[in-house]
Amino acid sequence: MESWLTKSGAVGLGDLELAEFPVTGRGVKTLRRFSQGERILTIPSDVLWSVERAYGDSLLGPALRSSLPPLSVEDILAIYILFVRSRESGYDGLRTHVSALPSSYSSSIFFSEEELEVCAGTSLYTITKQLEQRIEDDYRELADRVLAQHPDIFPLDMFTIEDYKWALCTVWSRSMDFTLPDGSSIRTLAPFADMLNHSSDVKQCHAYDVKSGDLSILAGKDYEIGDQVYIYYGPIPNNRLLRLYGFVIPGNPNDSYDLVLTTHPEAPLYEQKQKLWVSAGLDSTTTISLTLTDPLPMNILRYLRIQRADVSGLAALALQQIDGTDEKISDSNEVEILRFVEEAIGSLLDGFAISLERLEEQLAEGVYPVGGNAWAAAHRKRKQIPVRTREMCKLRQGFRAADVMWEV
Ligand SMILES: C[S@@+](CC[C@H](N)C(=O)[O-])C[C@H]1O[C@@H](n2cnc3c(N)ncnc32)[C@H](O)[C@@H]1O
User: Fold this and answer.
1) Is residue 168 a part of any domain in this protein?
2) What is the pLDDT of residue 370?
3) Are residue 209 and residue 260 in the same domain, yes or no?
4) Residues having CB within 6 Å of any atom of ligand 1
5) Do 241 and 164 share a structural domain?
């Protein structure tokens, strides 16, 4: 792969080498010192995987274009990778990249039932199950709409659902997204640059040059000879890291917990409530991220004030929206919703297969092999965030009670 890239105009490969590192696995090692900000690597536009390139391919392009509605960016890239992998000749350069890709991934969609059970009761568990279902549905549609229509270029035994899942994980864990000056975005996979692991010790240091279409990596910090070079994947919470990349960062400062709030359409006053949610920028089913710095976001209160309101409460909330204010409707409504959140979080924590305390003990005892799937899932279960949310609810209820007493 490296000699193909160098022949194609890549710059910097002579100073870098692929190597195995503890925890991150394979990564990129420096063969010389770099100062922060120095350009380390440039991968030219001609060798990048992109939607444009897939559409431009004389064999693949017409098959992709025949799909109506158009395929998603991730499906196009996934099919492109599987297509190149299935070719016995041609595509020599790209094929060297494909053969350097991992043969399997540790994203949560590849967890065994037993491994996933470790995080039963968490949003990771629910979202992974939903994702598995979505992938199955998408694959069935893709097979009908595109693959089966072009058996000459999509041999079905090389485009099975397992192949599709592998290709999707390749895209999720190795592609880079950039927003262009005109507001549009581009997703690309850059051979060799996709061997760079993530560290929160560097800021974003991968860049896309709109004029040339090249991708560059700058040194995110000073490096000594033999150091691992890192890039920054973004402020990604652990459940997303595990879903898309198959790893977690213990003590991740960007960790969050997704709380899904939903209301049955047959609930009283549903239509009025739906209108109020929409004008508040919410919906009848809303996912809200709880974080350690904001364990009880205002949107939870906004959503539940509407959900729990009676006719007069809804009128008061409608007036607030006109006035641009954002307050509790009444002490009793506010206490009711805080109690609800507290109880909901309580049953969520109770619903974990094993208790938090036991989990902490097991992690300390090293019951889950470090770096393994169950270990990663177990880390997800360190539910400091919902615990903090529950504490905040209690705290706010304390204040409410004090308010009520004072008003009396
Ligand atoms: C873009 S690839 C990086 C190259 C990859 N290590 C390889 O061998 O092909 C992203 C994958 O590397 C691993 N990875 C990246 N950063 C990591 C980190 N900080 N800790 C553990 N694994 C990491 C994860 O498996 C992730 O899905």
Assistant:
1) yes
2) 58
3) no
4) 23-27, 102, 173-174, 194-199, 245-247
5) yes
Query: Cα–Cα distance between 389 and 251 in angstroms, integer?
Result: 17
d(CA 85, CA 87) in angstroms, rounded, equals 6
What is the rounded CA–CA span in Å between residue 210 and residue 51? 15
Give the residue numbers spanning the domain of 228.
2-245
| Centroid of ligand 1 to alpha carbon of 198 (angstroms) | 7
* Single pTM value for the model: 0.79
Let me know whether 37 and 171 are in one domain.
Answer: yes
Summarize pLDDT for 155-196 with one digit per residue, the tens: 999 999 999 999 999 999 999 999 999 999 999 999 999 999
Instruction: Report the alpha-carbon distance of residue 177 to residue 244 in Å, rounded.
Output: 14
Question: Which percentage of the chain shows pLDDT scores above 90?
Answer: 62
Whether 228 and 140 map to the same domain: the answer is yes
> Cβ neighbours of residue 403 under 8 Å, at least 6 residues apart?
331
Using the predicted structure, report yes or no on whether residue 311 has a pLDDT greater than 90.
Answer: yes
Q: 30 lies in a domain?
A: yes
Per-residue tokens: 174: 């190795």
Say which residues have a Cβ less than 8 Å from residue 373's Cβ, sequence separation at least 6.
106, 108, 110, 111, 112, 115
For residue 252, how far is its CA from the centre of ligand 1 (angstroms)?
16
For 148, the token pair is 């089966």
With cut-offs at 50, 70 and 90, classify the pLDDT of residue 375.
Answer: low
Q: Answer yes or no: is the ipTM higher than 0.90.
A: yes
User: What distance in Å separates the CA atoms of residue 408 and residue 401, rounded to the nearest whole number?
Assistant: 11
How many distinct structural domains can be found in the chain? 2
- Cα 131 to Cα 39, 46, 110, 289: the distances in Å are 38, 33, 11, 18
Residue owning the nearest CA to atom 18 of ligand 1: 24
Name the residue at shortest CA distance from atom 24 of ligand 1.
245
